[in-house]
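User: Show me sequence and structure for the first protein, then do the same for the second.

Assistant: Starting with the first protein.
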Amino acid sequence: MEIIKREQLFKSRSYGATIRSAYTSFLENYKLIFRRTWPFLCAFSLLAPIVVLTSFAQRAGQFNPSVWGAYLLASLLLEVVAFLFYGRLTMFVNEQSYKWNVVRYLKAWLWQMLLIVVVSVVIGVVAGLVAVGVMPAEETAAPAANPMAAQAAQQMAILKVFGVTFVLFMVLALLLLPYIPVFMKYFAEPLTHMRKLIFKQFSVYMHYWGYIFLTMLITFIALFVLLMVIALPMIIMAIALVSSNSGVANGDEAGLPAYFGWMAYGICALTFFVYTFVSIFSFFVVCYIYGSIEAREIERKDVAVAVEE
C-alpha cells in the first residue's frame, strides 16, 4: 500500500480548488512519488528519444531496416513501460497490490482501445459519406478540358473532407472528456466493473462536463507552457537537425559535429525524464476531479432524499 499525504478526496471543489489540492498533494509527496517511479521514468527517458530521433531519420529520407526496427522495438517497449508505470501510479489511489494495478490498467487500456475503435469507425463512416457527396459534385463542376481546374476542385474537396473529419474528431474528443474521471473511478474503487461504468457512470459525469473541461484545460495549458520551457534545448536541437537535413538534401555537407547524435539523445532523455515526472501532477488533478464529482453526487442524493421525506 502506498501511503501519501493528501487532502480530503471526497469534497466538493471548484476547478481552482481542485488544481490547488492536486498541486499541494504533488508538492507534499514528490519525494515519495520519485522513489516509487524513478525506474520507470529512467526507462521511458531512455526509450522515448530513440522513437523521436528515428522518426526524424525516417522523415529525412534516411530509411533503412535498422532504423525502422529500432523505431518499432522502442515503441513496443514504451507501451510495456507505460503499463508498468501507470500500474505503479494507480497504487496511490487504492490499497491493491502492484500486480493487481497492472492487470487493472491492462483492462482499462483494452476498454480505451475499444472506444478509440468506435470513434474511428464513426469518423471514417462520416468522412466517407462526405467524400462521396463532395467529390462527384466537384468533379462535375470542373471543366474536363481544364485539368488545372479539375485538380484545384479535387484539392478543395479533399480539404472539405479533412475539415469535416477534424471538426468531428474534436467534437467527439470533447464529448468523451467525462471518461477521464470514469477511468479514475475504475482504479479507485476495486469492486467496480468497467462494463457498468462505461455507460451509466459516463451519463452521470456528463452533467459535470463544464467542470471537467475547465479543470483539464487549465491543467493542459500549465503543463504545455512548462513543456515549452523544459523542452527549449530539445526544440533548438530539432531545428538544427532539420536545417542540416534540408542542406544535405540540397547537396550541401552536414554541418553538425560527429557527437551531435549522442548530444541530441542526452538532451531528449533528460527532457523526457523531467517532464514525465512533473506531468504526474495531472494524475492528482484527475483524482480530485473524481473525488469532487462523487462528493457532489452524494450531496445531490442526500438533498433528494431529504426532499422526499
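Switching to the second protein now.
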Amino acid sequence: MTGEFTIGQGSATRLVTLPLMFDLVAAPLLFGWLLLRRGYAPSLRRIFCVYALLSPAIALFVAAVSLVARSAAGISG
C-alpha cells in the first residue's frame, strides 16, 4: 500500500494521500482535548471520547476496504 485511499468510482476516482488522511483524523483530536477539561458538560466530553475512538477506526476501515477493492480489481500501487 502506497498510502493512498481511493474515493469514488471510474473516472471520478480521487486519491486521498496518507498525510491528508492523518490530518483529517488528527486535527479534531488535537483541538478536542481542550473539551476534556473541567467546565465543559460531561455529555460533550463523552461525545468527544466516542469520536476519538471511532474516527481512527473508520479511517482504518476505509483504508482496508480500499485496499481490498484495489486488489480485487487488479490495480497495483
